[in-house]
Write a structure and sequence with these properties.
Elements (H helix, E strand, L loop, with lengths): L14 H24 L5 H23 L11 H25 L2 H8 L2 H12 L7 H17 L1 H5 L6 H24 L7 H22 L10 H26 L4 H6 L3 H14 L7 H15 L5
Length: about 300
């Protein structure tokens, strides 16, 4: 895979890397719609488990034409760090799906996408050269303010009696998502090939998610509606396969905190996808929210002075 510009671990992202992370954020935003559509055909945790199974089968096929290798994964500590990342990966989805069921979607998204703050704090303490500067902290705050504005209408909607528990579970899910990213940068996984980093997470998470599904009371049913199956295949092949492979490739080369900040765009793209594909209404302050997110990301990605 060609390198779209290379930065030092904690340096500003080059234009090529920004272009790739923008594309990934758009793909992940569309995935928010795909999860809704696929849920009509299969329960969410079962969906996540089957997604990991199919993606694990597809990743080696994707790597071959790209010239990517699984690398020397027998290096000390790499396999165990990969297994730990896979367990965290599975727990993240379990907590998130339980949390979304207890709170509103808007609140769940806002708490989940607190993840860039956790990444910034984790890399500040554990990854040399990826420090939390004042500009980065200010940029994260402004971008997150834009996210709050984008979901303002949903946040004002009444929430159920279990909303606080759901909020905390979504917050924990975001923290685990961040923990996976920090672990890749701060553990022996930083020496591993991106293909291995993804594959081990898929292989470890698949049985854990499939086991969790019946334990959470999900019925193992699959309704073969074409739209639901198509949405599921999008999640497995495009998101969990190709896009996650590109994500870990970026993380191996660039600042994790700067990359994670761009994930705030994912729910913004998700709102746009919902409006275009599902006819959902855009909030009154959506355009201003996009402007705030853009300003925040510009501040995050400014070169350190």
């Amino acid at each position: 895979m060609p390198d779209p510009g290379r930065a030092e671990s904690g340096g500003a992202l080059p234009p090529g890397a920004v272009a790739v992370i923008l594309l990934l954020s758009a793909l992940w935003g569309l995935n928010m719609v795909a999860v809704k559509l696929a849920s009509a055909g299969m329960p969410p945790v079962l969906q996540a488990g089957l997604r990991s199974v199919l993606a694990a089968l597809l990743v080696p096929l994707l790597c071959r034409p790209l010239g990517m290798r699984f690398g020397a994964w027998r290096q000390p500590g790499v396999l165990w760090a990969g297994i730990a990342a896979g367990v965290i990966f599975a727990l993240e989805f379990i907590l998130l799906f339980i949390g979304i069921g207890l709170t509103t979607a808007s609140r769940g998204v806002v708490f989940l996408y607190g993840a860039p703050f956790w990444v910034a704090l984790g890399t500040h303490w554990l990854v040399p050269g990826d420090r939390l500067t004042r500009a980065k902290a200010l940029g994260l705050g402004i971008a997150f303010g834009g996210l709050l504005l984008a979901f303002a209408d949903g946040l004002r909607a009444p929430a159920g009696p279990d909303a606080l528990r759901g909020d905390l579970l979504c917050l924990a899910g975001g923290a685990l998502w961040a923990a996976t990213t920090v672990l890749v940068k701060a553990s022996p996984l930083r020496h591993a090939a991106p293909a291995f980093v993804l594959q081990v997470q898929l292989v470890v998470s698949a049985p854990l998610l499939l086991l969790a599904s019946p334990l959470l009371g999900e019925a193992w049913r699959i309704d073969p509606q074409p739209l639901a199956i198509g949405a599921f295949l999008y999640q497995a092949a495009i998101v969990a396969g190709a896009s996650y492979l590109a994500w870990f490739w970026l993380v191996s080369r660039h600042s994790a905190s700067r990359l994670a900040a761009f994930s705030v765009l994912t729910p913004v793209f998700g709102v746009l996808a919902g409006a275009l594909l599902l006819g959902e209404r855009l909030g009154t302050g959506f355009l201003l929210a996009v402007v705030l997110v853009a300003i925040g990301l510009w501040l995050v990605n400014r070169p350190a002075r």
